[in-house]
Specification:
Length: 293
């Protein structure tokens, strides 16, 4: 009977302070949408860095007079090097086709014969794609015969290494700021609901009601507000996901903010914001009223 009374009291409180209730739901919804968008951006920025790193390769240009046996022997030697994932042989003709696709056929027509050398493209495991490790592999391969030149995008990799740690730090700091700001906004909005029932709280205290009896309906209200806010946030996220999917469906990096993990996170975060915001606000209110008395 007591539980039913507390739940009924929570719903009655929400109906009584309609404007404050709507404002709280709006605040929770907005906070959740911002958090989900930011989490999505953080996850996809990590995916983008990984996607770019996957394209980083070492290219070994071979001598003009290298034979097939020497090429195969060189490939086997390189395959034994730690960190090598796979090796792709690019013949002179294939190199010409790649060059034409990128720069146009006219660039090669000025030459009497194909000036492009055959090469080996070496893909490494991600943990080996650092400037230090790739330079070690480069120096080792340069000691092998029939190797004319070795290149990899060192400057490109340097930018990735410097910015990836900065991006992760910014993401972490921003997530903390957004989360704390959301709790602050929700708790301050819920304060309007509690202030509107100041007389009722004081009356219950005069009648000898325990703090747990006074606080519980507000916690239930916070739970209800959090669920409602999560539902509205889910609807908005669904709309955003539909727009992004239809706009950027051809993008190699598939950005999606609608998945089971995000929906579960939205529900849990909504409940947390509602309950925690209510709890800290009503406790602060009770302490303030006690100090006044």
């Amino acid at each position: 009977m007591k539980i039913k009374h507390l739940i009924a009291e929570a719903f009655r409180g929400l109906r009584t302070a309609k404007i404050s209730t709507i404002t709280t739901i709006f605040t929770i919804t907005l906070s959740l949408v911002l958090i989900i968008i930011f989490v999505t951006l953080s996850v996809n920025s990590g995916k983008l860095i990984k996607s770019v790193k996957e394209k980083v390769e070492i290219e070994v240009f071979l001598s003009e007079d290298i034979s097939n046996d020497e090429t195969n022997d060189l490939r086997e030697k390189i395959r034994t090097i730690g960190g090598v994932k796979n090796i792709t042989y690019i013949s002179k003709n294939e190199a010409a086709k790649i060059f034409e696709a990128e720069f146009g056929k006219e660039m090669l027509e000025v030459f009497e014969s194909n000036p492009l050398p055959a090469s080996l493209r070496i893909n490494l495991y991600d943990e080996y794609k650092s400037i230090e490790r790739m330079n070690k592999i480069k120096n080792l391969i340069s000691t092998y015969p029939k190797v004319d030149d070795i290149i990899f995008p060192e400057k490109y990799l340097e930018v990735i290494e410097k910015n990836s740690s900065v991006i992760l730090t910014i993401n972490l700091i921003s997530l903390i700021i957004i989360s704390l700001s959301s709790v602050f906004l929700v708790s301050n909005t819920i304060r309007l609901v509690i202030s509107s029932r100041k007389k009722l709280i004081n009356l219950l205290k005069l009648l000898g009601a325990k703090n747990s009896f006074i606080v519980t309906p507000f916690i239930i209200e916070g739970f209800i507000l959090g669920i409602i806010g999560a539902i509205f946030a889910g609807i908005i996220i669904f709309g955003l996901n539909y727009y992004i999917s239809s706009k950027f469906f051809e993008n190699e990096l598939k950005i999606s903010i609608l998945n089971y993990e995000n929906l579960i996170f939205t529900a849990v975060a909504g409940i947390f914001l509602g309950i925690f915001g209510s709890l800290i606000t009503v406790r602060r209110f009770l302490k303030k009223e006690k100090a006044v008395i």
